[in-house]
């Protein structure tokens, strides 16, 4: 019964339209889950990994947006 519930939850998450907003969360959750498993706190590691992964993804997006708004001027030779 637990396996059926787990498979249903994973399938619904995989096919949901909100999956695009999970950027960074999945990777962080996997890494956090593995680290938490070895520390004896697997579920806490998954949640913390998701939060940290999402934060890092947002930070990278902000840096990319800032670079797009302020391109670097060419040097004296005209080379980049």
Task: Describe this entry's structure for a reader.
- With 80 residues, this protein is an all-alpha fold.
- The chain is 70% helix and 0% strand.
- It contains three helices and no strands.
- The protein has helices at 2-14, 25-39, 42-69.
- It is elongated.
- The termini are far apart.
- The mean pLDDT is 76.
Distance between the termini: 60 Å
Biggest beta-sheet profile? none
| Helix share bin | over 70%
Counting H and I runs of at least 4 residues, what is the number of helices? 3
Which structural category fits the helices and strands?
mainly alpha
Mean pLDDT: 76
Rough shape?
elongated
Quaternary organisation: single chain
Radius of gyration: 19 Å
User: Hey, roughly how much beta strand do the residues contain?
Assistant: under 5%
Order of helices and strands: HHH
Weakly predicted, low-confidence segments: none
* DSSP strand count: 0
Features of the shown structure:
mainly alpha, 0% strand, 80 residues
Would you spell out the secondary-structure blueprint of this structure?
Layout: H1 2-14, H2 25-39, H3 42-69
Helix pairs in contact: 2-3
Q: What would a concise description of this structure say?
A:
The chain has 80 residues and is mainly alpha-helical.
């Amino acid at each position: 019964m637990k396996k059926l519930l787990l498979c249903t939850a994973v399938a619904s998450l995989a096919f949901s339209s909100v999956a695009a907003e999970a950027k960074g969360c999945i990777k962080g959750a996997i890494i956090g889950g593995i680290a938490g498993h070895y520390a004896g706190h697997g579920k806490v590691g998954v949640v913390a990994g998701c939060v940290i992964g999402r934060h890092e993804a947002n930070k990278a997006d902000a840096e990319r947006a800032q670079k797009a708004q302020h391109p670097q001027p060419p040097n004296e030779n005209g080379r980049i």
